[in-house]
Design brief:
UCP028063_topo_Znf; 2 domains; DUF2726; DUF2726 domain-containing protein; Trna Endonuclease, Chain: A, domain 1
Length: 230
């Protein structure tokens, strides 16, 4: 039994060196390649164009960005770093909006492909939400469509990028009917984020998500700082 084990080890070592030598002696002229085609499908391209219009000159929009190029594991030892890095090495952000000067990431956007929620898709969503929360990168979810309203995208982004001004809109409190005003959270996890609040505070304490979508049913009193994960 011991002899068989030694033979197997020797064969593995032999094939390893043979393979390494073959790769080393191969020339680039012997390798041929072809283009795969467009980086994005038609629906993703439509969203990209709408996103670039919404951002304007206040950000750079990148697509299919590898996570490992944007974030790094925080670990106390090599094993922990390796495990954390392996989880993001082959994953990516659908879209990333960066500062136009420094290219520092500002907002990550996940575009729902419309497919049924299976195990793989669920694991990806869990990874995205955990990565973005722990690295403090805002995450916005959007549903895939053939066309997109730039005004809605601008409203979503304005909650995270101060230079982006949303289209002017007037909202009224759903509890008392009074006009609502925009305020910025001064503390807590969502410090610096915008949200709507009733102008009759403190008599009326109704608040509303800044990123609320009007043509979909809304809860009676949504969290003003909840990430829009469509």
């Amino acid at each position: 039994m011991e002899n068989i084990f030694i033979i197997v080890v020797l064969l593995v070592v032999f094939f390893f060196f043979v393979q390494k030598r073959l790769i080393k002696t191969e020339t680039y002229k012997d390798c041929k390649y072809k283009r795969k085609g467009a980086l994005l499908n038609s629906q993703e391209t439509a969203f990209l164009n709408a996103l670039k219009t919404a951002v304007g000159e206040h950000g750079v929009v990148l697509a299919k960005v590898n996570m490992a190029n944007v974030i790094a594991p925080v670990a106390t030892n090599k094993k922990q770093w390796f495990v954390a890095n392996s989880k993001i090495a082959k994953s990516y952000f659908d879209f990333l909006i960066c500062d136009p000067r420094s290219l520092e990431p500002r907002v990550a956007i996940e575009l729902d492909n419309g497919k049924e929620l299976d195990k793989g898709k669920m694991e990806r969503q869990k990874l995205l939400m955990h990565v973005c929360k722990s690295s403090n990168v805002p995450l916005i979810g959007a549903s895939i469509k053939h066309s997109y309203q730039v005004g809605r995208l601008r409203r979503l982004l304005a909650a995270h990028i101060d230079l982006i001004e949303p289209d002017k809109e007037v909202r009224f409190c759903k509890k008392c009917g009074s006009p609502m005003v925009i305020k910025i959270a001064s503390q807590g996890e969502f410090k610096g984020r915008r949200f709507f609040t009733c102008s009759r505070q403190p008599q009326c304490t109704y608040t509303e998500n800044y990123n609320v979508v009007f043509d979909e049913p809304e809860p009676e009193n949504p969290n003003p700082n909840q990430i829009d994960w469509s």
